[in-house]
Amino acid sequence: MKYVVILGDGMADEPIESLGGQTPLAYAKTPVMDELARKGEIGLAHTIPKGMSPGSDTANLSVLGYNPRQYYTGRSPLEALSIGVDMEDSDVALRCNLVTLTEEDAPYSQQKILDHSSGEISTEDAKILLKAVADELADETYQFYVGTSYRHCLIWKKGKVEELTPPHDVLTRCIQEYLPGDSHLRHMQERSYEILKNHPLNQERKAKGLNPANSLWFWGAGTRPALSSFEEAHQKKGAMISAVDLLKGIAVGAGMDNILVEGANGGLHTNYEGKAQAAVKALTKDGYDFVYIHVEAPDEMGHQGSVERKVQSIEYLDERVIRLVKEGLDKAGADYRMLIMPDHPTPIRLRTHTTSPVPYLIYDSTDKKERTWRYQEDQAAESGNEFAHGWDVMKHLFQEI
Length: 401
Prior knowledge:
five-stranded antiparallel sheet, Alkaline Phosphatase, subunit A, alpha/beta, 18% strand
């Protein structure tokens, strides 16, 4: 038996008036997911423990079978693992976003965040801008590391963990009350704005109608993580397929392999087919028992507040990933169980994450029963199937419970 998880990050949502009172998942044309739901099991899972922040870090740990209360030490340390940063126990890692602030004639603290991803800036452009900041601000205590797109890392030697607000939670708001309490972190953010707002590359971006990446934004602080081995826990050799450093870092920490797909970028126009093909190859030819395919696009579209693009991202997931994985495994004659779910909701109305339970779908290629479900939030709730602890879904997929 082979096992595959297809994770549509932030895919769950709330009913939206412009969609006739449906959620994007219910409104989207998803014939493959609906077919699998008719032949499978749907239900709800609570992926975020009560009192914890509904980040993709805690939520994906939960989906992978790790209790976030036990294993979570911060988001950025997981990302640091993915880019090869060897953290010491006294180090603190922070997420270092390149964001777009307003450029009003006002002090830094009075600016607003327009875009948490700087228009989904390319890694190539981001590398140039981060170097301009690091050339002035990096030293023995503060070290910058390039990640992917707008997502980068700051290592603070002998630092302290401070609760900092994700930039996607501050969209369109004045940043003053969300700035770091630590004076040096705050100074570095402010100085980065002075360095970047007139940088030639940002001037070029504005001339092309692109959002400038004109400030750093620190958040997600934490210490070195210590995850247990996924393979030892489940006796399954696993691989991760994701464009996002966070997920790659979770894989490194869990002792799973990362499979890199050319053209996978974490945006709406990513290499969906490449991810699907890589998963089928890993399961049918390369000796893996389990593959986790992470697709970031629904979450990004939720943060952008775009109903149309969120629907499109879900349709892409159905047609360009799930269909190809199913067809590839069926053609290979493999018996398999497939789990499809979001990690958390990212409602268009809020443009950020919530702690609401998410719908899951488990399809078993050996189960020939027919049901009447469609894969959407309300029908998952009506099914009566519910996991109070999201980390138990993985055990259910593996039929360990």
